[in-house]
Every structure is written in C-alpha cells, then in structure tokens.
User: Fold this.
Amino acid sequence: MPLILKSVVLFSLAAGLIAGCAKEKDVYNIIPNNPQSAACYAMDTKTAKNCDDTDYNTILESINEWRISAYNYKHISTPLKSSEDSSYKIRFSKGAVNGSLGCNNFFGGYSIKNGILTIGNAGMTRKMCDPKTMENEAILTKHFLNAETKILMLKDNEQVGKIFLVGKDFYLVLD
Assistant:
C-alpha cells in the first residue's frame, strides 16, 4: 500500500474516532477534565474512547459473513484474498464467532463492551497449508483471536462500508 494511501487510511481512522466523540459537528478536540469531552476520554490510558451508543453486536451480526480483506501489522499492510487453498472470513451470531483465518477454521465466543471486541474460549483446527498462508494465519491468530480489539467503522452513504478491528501494532479490515 503506498505511503500516501496508508496516511489517508490512518488519518480517516483517527478522524472517525474523534468525530464520533465530538458533541458538536465542528468540535474535534478531546480535552481531559472538559465536561464536553469527558465521556470521550479515558483518564486511565489518557486516550480517546468511544462515547456513542452504537450497537456493534447488531452491526456485526447484520452481515452473514464478513470478508477479511486485509490486515496491518507493525505498519505493513497485507491484502488477503481467498483462494482454493485459503479462506479469510468471519461470522458473528448471538455471542458466537467462527470463520477462517487462512488455512484453519476457528470458533469461540465473543463479547463487546465500550466498543472493545473480546474473543474468548477460541478453538481452531490444525491443518497445514502453504507457508505464506500459515504466516498470515499465525499473525491473525495472535493479534485477533488472542487479543482485545477496538471496533471502528467507516460509513459509505450512511451504510457500514468497512470495519476496522484495531489492536496494538495491528488492525484487521472487514468488508
């Protein structure tokens, strides 16, 4: 992904998070101890947080199967494309999650609190595939199945366009 496009994506993510917390359309400053932005500021981590009332469960469950189109790990973007030998998809339904992170199928439970997705009791099949698919799957497993991720949405004409699941040095793109 070209550097300019990466910058646009990261700026869009940050602007979307901050805009979602603004009380007025033109106010984007999140200031600690300011009553207008207190709901949007996590004092313990000193970062912006979701302050909207978005029902992420309904949104994630509204699509039968989300395609995992890419991930970014340590500032390197990797597009993902399903093939005969690999599949990148995820499904959410009534607190259960399942799908494929490349070679193997996974399953487990999930919960969402304050815009943070947590997957628990995850299990996975263990077959071998080509080395690149296995490398992608190892990164996705470590940073998605075994970690909490922040949910960010990009809307296109008032419809959910893409969902970013953001963790430390990592994000996953669903569409």
Q: What stands out?
A: The two ends are 18 Å apart (CA to CA).
